[in-house]
Write a structure and sequence with these properties.
Region (Disordered): 217-260
Radius of gyration: 28 Å
Shape: extended
Oligomer: single chain
Biased composition (Basic and acidic residues): 237-251
Number of domains: 2
Biased composition (Polar residues): 225-236
Largest sheet: 4 strands, antiparallel
Length: 342
């Protein structure tokens, strides 16, 4: 089909700008098998948003229990951000050493594995190393995108075709408008604004390189070229630094040693439910059951246990914060740890 519709009569799908994907070893192995390792090393990048999310997760967990937790988190995140967006090799090496020094000074050596994990993949994500022409949008996320429903239900075949053709014309015009700057896609910058941002980054990078070359010339030093990483992910490796099957290769963040304040409140309320009685137990399968409780006032509550338990109590049905919806209600805790089944 590519050969039929392409003006260049291409025989295979080989993007000129490269690929954007996560760090899952299976994806990289498949590309290497299809296009050879050299093409993959030079043309593969990963989404910097994933790195930022990973950075936030690790920096938040590793400082649990510190009095100056918030200050340390902000400081470390800024240093990591400066490292990622360094435009030259010297700047990257300097920022990398700064992040490493900060980690060691704060006795958080578990983060060194995380730092080394990303440094091995610097060709994929670090501005100083990744291909400047590589894609900057994760097209793999398109499966999660949604389109606006144009209306129409219970249509016959002719009406469905009319709606379908109408959508095609609308999307075609929207694409033209996006590239001309008339239409903006989503909540991000327009196409023209993106081009301006890319030009500004290129100018900034060129200016920094010229300053470094000038300093090296005056100091009698040879220019330092990027040392590209020859790292290739193993086919079975995970896309996250903390998901390796080998415990020695993944960072160890500090874990919670006591229950949260909200959970302790639920525990105390469950222990105070001594007068509640179990009136019915329905076992649907070895892993599914419904337990019905009655309060001293005659109110009944049904608790359903499966891979995720649910309850008919007002707390469980509360449409409040995400934190409250994830918290187990006292009725579920009462059944699990307080109910006398004798």
């Amino acid at each position: 089909m590519l050969k039929q519709y392409s003006d260049q009569k291409i025989n295979e799908f080989r993007p000129a700008s490269g690929w954007m994907m996560n760090e899952g070893g299976g994806l990289h192995s498949a590309l290497e098998t299809k296009y050879a390792a050299i093409y993959c090393q030079d043309r593969v990048v990963t989404c910097q948003l994933h790195l930022n999310m990973c950075r936030n997760r690790h920096t938040s967990s590793v400082f649990i229990g510190n009095d100056d937790k918030e200050q340390k988190i902000v400081e470390l995140r800024k240093k990591i951000n400066d490292m990622v967006h360094s435009t030259t090799v010297n700047q990257y090496n300097s920022q990398y050493n700064e992040v490493k020094r900060f980690i060691m000074e704060n006795n958080k050596s578990s983060l060194l594995k995380w730092l080394q994990w990303w440094d091995k993949r610097r060709n994929h994500v670090m501005d100083a190393y990744k291909d400047v022409s590589a894609p900057n949008t994760n097209l793999a996320e398109v499966s999660r995108a949604s389109t606006i429903h144009c209306g129409g239900s219970k249509l016959n075949l002719i009406q469905t075709a009319v709606f379908d053709i109408s959508d095609c014309f609308k999307y075609a015009q929207a694409v033209k408008g996006y590239f001309s700057g008339v239409v903006k896609a989503g909540s991000g910058p327009s196409y023209q604004r993106k081009q301006i941002i890319l030009e500004q980054k290129a100018n900034s990078r060129a200016e920094n390189l010229l300053h470094e070359l000038d300093d090296q010339f005056k100091g009698g030093k040879a220019p330092q070229l990027p040392t590209t990483s020859t790292f290739m992910a193993e086919p079975s490796s995970s896309h996250r630094a903390d998901k390796s099957s080998d415990k020695d290769k993944r960072p160890i963040g500090k874990t919670r040693t006591n229950s949260s304040k909200e959970f302790n409140i639920r525990i105390e309320k469950a222990k105070a439910m001594g007068d509640y009685k179990c009136i019915e137990v329905n076992i649907h399968s070895p892993i599914q059951a419904t337990v019905s409780l009655v309060s001293p006032q005659g109110e009944t509550y049904a608790v359903y246990f499966d891979q995720k338990s649910t309850s008919s109590c007002p707390f469980s049905n509360l449409q409040g914060t995400e934190k409250l919806r994830k918290m187990a209600c006292k009725h579920r805790i009462f059944i699990l740890i307080c109910l006398d089944y004798s």
